[in-house]
Amino acid sequence: MTQRVATPTAGAIFELIRRGEVTTRAEVAAATGLSRTAVTARLTALLASGLVVEGSEAPSTGGRPPVQLQFNAAAGAVLAAALGRSRTQMAVCDLEGRVLASSEFDHEDGHAPDELMPRVRTALDALMADAGIPADRVRGVGLSLPCTIDPATGMSLSSPVMRGWDGVPLGRWFEDLDCVVHVENDANALALAETHGHALRWPDLVVLKASTGLGAGVLINGALVRGFRGAAGELGHTKVAAADGRICRCGDVGCLDTVAGGWAIVQDSAADGDPPAHIRDLVSRALDGDAAARRRIRESGRRVGEVLAGVVNLLNPGALVIGGDIAAAYDIFVAGLRETLYAGATAAASNALEIVPSTHGADAGIVGCAQAAVSDVLSPATVDAMLRRQA
Fold it and tell me: What angle (nearest 5°) sits at the alpha carbon of residue 187, between those of residues 267 and 367?
């Protein structure tokens, strides 16, 4: 039996234009099999929405030159906020995910949603004003948290470092905007940022977030792997022999986080005297040549490399991307990581493996949050729903 092919919607045509697969009305008709009348109707709706604009004339193949169709990234904006244990970064971005305005603030550990989210929303409103973006042009919001996010509900499922956030619907702080709100794990957000970075060269990637805690985001053929319950990539809570007997923030014992996570090596640094307040302070000391700080960061890399060797054997990624606060001391951390990763991984999986810093550096979190929002906002189904409301 011949399978019935669904008639391409305006959203599906928009996706072709956004990817650059079609650039003229004739190419749309050829790619979709739609009549000229149907193509005109769908493109009229997309042009009216502002998501598609007519640009310059394309080269003529005889007769009147066709007008090029282009995705308009200025047709709206998305808000992005990477919420951390002690620091939150925010941005307003266009529909390509490019940052238009950004800011950040530090806060005390353990803030509950009712304390932190109003501050986040106020800061985002200020950024919208700075960027000249009115509320009715915001099409989506992307948030990230250092916890497991339930893909079915978009809420925190397990948050050992931000207690009180589990099961909290964060979208309620953005209800007045009437837009899509996407909540993502923080390491996954770093991986999504690489869809506009290293994934263009290596579509199979493991992205390490080495910061206060440890996590990994995985891209396979350019697509994010979240796992059945959204718990893929919980690298820091892998049990390792070196952590035997050490109590983790998650309440368990023996996690990698207790010997290699930023919070743990900051605690251990108290033995050196004058303990740093945060992993960023320890990284700064290491970059200034402090021998004890350099030793602890390199040792963190060694511990992480032992666990990543198994990840490399299992997934055979093209590259390992290093992000997070510890990545600011990239050379020191990676020197230790290379020692144990290459010793533990098979030659077949590691010989061609590249280890590289995050494309977007300290902005990777907000870039990833923006990409999460953009993916939702510009999906064919969301575009079709928006056009129906505007009709």
Answer: 115
| Half-sphere exposure at residue 190, Cβ-oriented, CA atoms within 13 angstroms | 30
The pLDDT, as a whole number, for residue 385 is 93
- The two three-digit tokens of residue 140, written as one number: 């989506």
22 close to 42: Cβ distance less than 8 angstroms: no
CA distance 70 to 320: 34
pLDDT at 274: 75
DSSP H helices, 51-193, are 113-131, 186-193
Could you tell me which CATH number the domain at 198-358 has?
A: 3.30.420.40
Of 230, 200, 191, 229, the C-alpha closest to 320 is: 191
Averages of pLDDT over each 10 residues, the chain, 391 residues: 63 94 92 93 95 76 74 96 92 96 87 92 97 95 92 82 86 93 95 96 98 96 92 93 92 94 92 84 96 96 98 98 97 98 97 97 96 95 92 76
DSSP string, 298-355: HHHHHHHHHHHHHHHHHH--SEEEEESGGGGGHHHHHHHHHHHHHHHS-HHHHTT-EE
On the question of a common fold for 75-191+366-390 and 198-358, the answer reads: yes
In this prediction, residue 2 carries a pLDDT of 38
Residue ranges of domains in the chain: 10-71, 75-191+366-390, 198-358
SS3 call for 255 = strand
Entry pTM: 0.92
Question: Residue 239 CB: number of other CB atoms within 10 A?
Answer: 13
| Superfamily the domain 75-191+366-390 falls into | ATPase, nucleotide binding domain (3.30.420.40)
Which top CATH class is 10-71?
Answer: mainly alpha
Residues with Cβ < 8 Å from 160, sequence gap 6 or more?
147, 248, 249, 250, 251
Predicted local distance difference test score (pLDDT) of residue 159: 75
